[in-house]
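Internal tracking record. Fields below are filled automatically when a chain is submitted to the structure queue. Please do not edit lines marked as system-generated. If the sequence contains nonstandard residues, flag them in the REMARKS field before resubmitting.
Queue: standard
Priority: normal
Entity type: single polypeptide chain
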Amino acid sequence: MGPNASIFALIGPLPVECEVQYRLPLMGTLENATSILSLQLKVFAKVY
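SYSTEM-GENERATED OUTPUT FOLLOWS
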């Protein structure tokens, strides 16, 4: 569970989406809680 933020923009002729996400597990059994920070960069292109 955690927040995320994303931005969608045009860089030249290509649309690009950048997403940042932070996750913190609520509960686990026999495991330590590990938080995760991830960054995703998505580039969209048209295929003819």
